[in-house]
Structures are given as C-alpha cells and as structure tokens.
Design goal:
Structural class: alpha/beta
Oligomer: single chain
Strand order of the largest sheet: 5-4-3-2-1-11-12-13
CATH topology of the largest domain: Rossmann fold
Distance between the termini: 18 Å
CATH architecture of the largest domain: 3-Layer(aba) Sandwich
Number of domains: 2
Number of strands: 13
Length: 271
C-alpha cells in the first residue's frame, strides 16, 4: 500500500453510471464536479471510461461540462478526444452473423443492441429493456429500432443482449468464439472482442501520452470495471459497487452519493 500511496498519478479514468452519476439522483454530485475541476487545475488528465458508445455520451456529458482529456467508449472498443484523435476495433463479422441468427431463431423475444461509432439501435423495445432504461434517468439516451441485418453491412463495435446472467448469456456466447461478455448491469451484458475491455482502451491513451500503469488511477462500480481496476496503478471501487468489483480494487471508497470520488482522491493524496 505504501507504494500505491507514493504513486505519481498522471491520469484518472472514470466509469459513468454508478461512479460519476448517481443511480439515486441521476446527477453528478457537486463534490465530484469539484474533484474534476481540481484534477484539471493540477494538470492531471481525466478520461471517461464507459461501456456506452460515442453516440450515447451526450446526455452524460451535459451533466458534466468538463474539459475531458479523452473518452474510452464501448468498453475500450473506441477511444477518441475532442481534437481529432480516434482509434477503434470492430467485432468479428462472423460472430456478428452468428449473434443475429441465434437471436432470431432462439431468443426472438429478447432485445439486442447494436453499436456503431455514430449510431446505436435495437432490434426491438421490450418491457424488460424499457424498465432498465428508466433506471438511467436523465442520462438515458434515445431508443432507436432498426433492422439487425444492418450490422452485416455496417461496422459493429459492440453488441448488447438484454438477458440476465446465466444460461441465456452462456448460450449466446457459445456461438461467438471471438468475443466476450462484459456485464455492468444485471439486466444486460455487453459483448466486445475477446481481447477487448476497458484496459485495452486505456492502453491506447497511455501509449499516446507515454504513461505506464503505475501512473493511472481508475474508478468503477460494476462488473465491466473489474479488469480496469486491476490494471490501473490504483483501482478504486465505489461503495455502491458490486461485491466482485470491490474485491478487485485496491481501495473501496464511499458511495457515489457520499463523496466517494473526492474522498478517494484525497485518501491517495492525488488532491
């Protein structure tokens, strides 16, 4: 722990839902906004690191009018900044074909999401999907329905299957050998390339700026944050996070509604 406390932090990566934004108020706490301003004043880079695709960041960004250094989106599949930089990795096209066929034949009543760089759509809007979407509050993006066959002629970077953890998820992943599931919410799982995940996106920015893992800090609360917290020099789980996320972290801070981000940054003498 002494080595962690002495870390020279150059960048901090933040998950959005349940980390920057509260599931209770659906807002960013004032203490978190103050922490972001203080990091910027110290010259420490700040990044959003989310499962959301670029097309679904607008609502969250409106709650955080902050000069972000960059964005890791779709669980690491697309990295970009507001100055023209962008790197992205698509899903295996064979896996996409298998997913479409499987969902149509075996799970016709299940909602599925398809993420391109600038467009996100669903095969259908079920009550299960609508109920989950309500939980996002004012950060929830619009729901658009389109033909899943579009994914065979347009590059797809991430898929989402709105099924609970367990047998259905396992059946889907069995037909997608080049992909893996990442779940941050009990209602659905995101699907990305097997070598993907938030650390893959973080590495892109680390190469760009010349940092190593010991110089980055990360905050998260869900299952898709576990690898990110293990990878970062300092990985912090929110007090409202899942048990497996907390177990993967170097430190468990207070929950998002009780100054968790600011308190952790102070604990590690980053602020």
């Amino acid at each position: 722990m002494d080595e962690i406390m002495d870390a020279d932090i150059k960048a901090v990566f933040f998950d959005i839902d349940g980390t920057l934004t509260s599931f209770v108020t659906h807002e960013v706490p004032r203490s978190t906004k103050n922490a972001l301003e203080a990091l910027e004043a110290k010259g420490i880079a700040t990044f959003i690191c989310s499962g959301r695709p670029p097309a679904q960041l607008d609502a969250a960004r409106r709650l955080m009018p902050h000069d972000w250094t960059g964005f890791v989106t779709m669980n690491g599949q697309c990295c970009f900044d507001d100055h023209g930089y962008q790197e992205a990795e698509a899903l295996d096209q064979g896996d996409v074909r298998n997913f479409i066929d499987f969902m149509r034949e075996k799970m016709p009543d299940v909602s599925a999401g398809f993420c391109e760089l600038d467009y996100v759509y669903f095969n259908q809007i079920t009550g299960y999907l609508a109920d989950m979407w309500k939980g996002l509050g004012q950060t929830a993006p619009a729901l658009v329905v389109d033909d899943p066959e579009r994914a065979l002629t347009h590059t797809t970077y991430q898929l989402s299957a709105y099924v609970p953890a367990g047998e259905q998820e396992d059946e889907i992943m069995a037909v997608m050998p080049h992909s893996k599931a990442l779940r941050w919410h009990p209602a659905f799982t995101d699907i990305c390339p097997s070598d993907g995940g938030k650390p893959a996106g973080m590495r892109r920015f680390m190469r760009k700026y010349g940092w190593d893992a010991s110089q980055v800090m990360a905050f998260g609360d869900g299952g898709n944050d576990i690898d990110m917290l293990r990878f970062a020099g300092i990985g912090v789980a929110m007090g409202n996070g899942t048990d497996d996320t907390k177990a993967a972290a170097d430190w468990v801070t207070d929950d998002v509604d009780h100054d968790g981000i600011l308190n952790a940054l102070r604990h590690f003498d980053v602020l």
